[in-house]
Amino acid sequence: MRKVCLTGATGFIGSSLYQVLSEKYHTLTITRDEIADLSDHRALSHRHRKDIVDKLTGCHAVFHLASIVHQANLSSPKQIRSAYDVNCQLTQRLVALSALCGVGKFIFTSSLSVYDHDVDEVIDESSKLGPCSVYGITKLLAEQMIVSSCASFNMDWVIFRLPLVYGPNAPGNFQNLVHLLAHSPLVPFANIHSEKSLLALPNLLSALLHSVESNKTNNQIFVLSDQSDLTFSELCHLCLAGLGRSPKHLVALSPRILSAIGAFPVFAPTIRKILSSMKVDSSKFTSMTDWSPPISPIEFIPLSASMYLTRLRSDCA
User: Fold this and answer.
1) What's the pLDDT band for 6 if we cut at 50, 70, 90?
2) Most CB within 10 Å of its CB: which of 72, 181, 200, 265?
3) β-strand 156-162 against 61-64: which pairing, if any?
4) Per-residue model confidence (pLDDT) at position 39
5) Helix (H/G/I), strand (E/B), else coil: 165
6) Burial annotation 89-108 (CB, 10 A radius, 16+ → b, else e)
7) For residue 288, how many C-alpha atoms fall within 13 Å in the half-sphere facing its CB?
8) Rounded Cα–Cα distance for residues 104 and 98 (Å)
9) What is the mean pLDDT of the chain?
10) Looking at the DSSP assignment, which residues form a beta bridge with residue 250?
11) Burial state string for 3-38 with b = 16 or more CB within 10 A and e = fewer than 16
C-alpha cells in the first residue's frame, strides 16, 4: 500500500479526505506544529523534525490543505502576519522538505479568491488574477512558491482553485446561509438571479483522488465545480427543502433595495457576494481526466442542510 501525507486533517475537507484516502493508501497526517518546526535549524534528531522526515520519506503524494480560512476580518497586522506565516511560509517549508524526501507529487488546494472578481466572466484557469483579500493574496503567493520550488526540485504538483465547498457541517458562508434559512420567518432572496458555481464535498474528494492517481494532472492548475450552476434563489430553495421548510419563507425584495442595503459598509461584503455571479468552467479537468462529478447539487444541498438540523437537535439533547 502506497503512502500519502495530509495536512489540515482536522478541518472540514481534510477530515473527510483522510477517511477516503485511508481506504486506498497508508495515510499519515502532518500538523502545523511539525511544519513550523522546520524553521528551527537544529539537528534532524529534534523530535518533530525527525517525525516529519520519516513521514515524508518514500511518500507517493502530499495533500496540503492546512491554511487560515473563513476569517472575515484578516485586517490587523497580527492577523495578516499569521495568514502569511501559515498560508505561505509553512507551504514553502513543506514543499522544500517534501522534495528532499523524494515525494512524488504535491497537491495543493487553493481558492477562487486569487481571481479578479470585478471581471464579469466565467472563470477558468486563464482568467485574470487579482486577489482583493489577504486570504486570496496569500493563496496566490503560495501557488507561486509551489510552482517555482517544484520546478527547482523536479517534483510534480497539482493546484486546485476551489469555489465554495459545501456539505454537512460545512463552515463559513454555506453554514451561515443554512442557519439564516432555518431560523428566519422570512428571507428576502426569492428573486436573486445571480448564478453560483459550487462544489459538493464528495465531488471534491473524488477529484482529489483522480489527481493523485493520474499523471495527466501533473504540473497543472485546475478550477473545479459541480458543473451545475444555480441561481442564489435556487440554492435557497434547495436548502429549505432539506430543512423541511416551505418555500413561502422566501419573499421577493427588489435587488435595488438590497443594493441600497449593501451601501452600508457593515453589509457591503455580504450583499456583494449575494448579488454577484460566480461561475466556473471546469472543463479542463474533466477533459484531461474523464472525471465527472459523482453527485448532483440537487441531491446533496438538501442533504447537507438536513444535517444542520440533525446536529442542532444533537446539541440540544
Assistant:
1) very high
2) 200
3) unpaired
4) 58
5) strand
6) bbbbbbbbbbbebebbbbbb
7) 20
8) 8
9) 89
10) 187
11) bbbbbbbebbbbebbbeebeeebebbbbbeebbebb
Length of the chain: 317
Domain count, the chain: 1
Q: Does the residue 56 lie in any domain?
A: yes
**Residue 150 in this model has a pLDDT that exceeds 50:** yes
Starting at the edge strand found earlier in the chain, the sheet holding 105-111 runs 26-30, 3-7, 61-64, 105-111, 156-162, 220-223
Which residue type, as a one-letter code, is found at position 287? S
Whole-angstrom Cα distance, residue 204 to residue 5? 17
Do the domain assignments include residue 270? no
Q: Concatenated DSSP letters for 56-117?
A: HTT-SEEEE-----S-TTTTSHHHHHHHHIIIIIHHHHHHHHHHHTT-SEEEEEEEGGGB-T
Q: All 3 cell numbers of residue 127?
A: 482568467
Q: Is the pLDDT confidence value at 315 over 70?
A: no
**Which residues sit opposite 4 in a β-bridge?**
27, 61
What's the rounded Cα separation, in Å, for the pair 170 and 204? 13
In angstroms, the Cα distances linking 54 to 31, 57, 102 are 14, 5, 11
Collect all residues with Cβ–Cβ distance below 8 Å to 290 and sequence separation of at least 6: none
Residue 143: inside a domain, yes or no?
A: yes
Instruction: Write the CATH number for 52.
Output: 3.40.50.720
Question: How many angstroms separate the CA atoms of 65 and 14, rounded?
Answer: 7
pTM, whole model, 2 decimals?
A: 0.91
In a domain, 192, yes or no: no
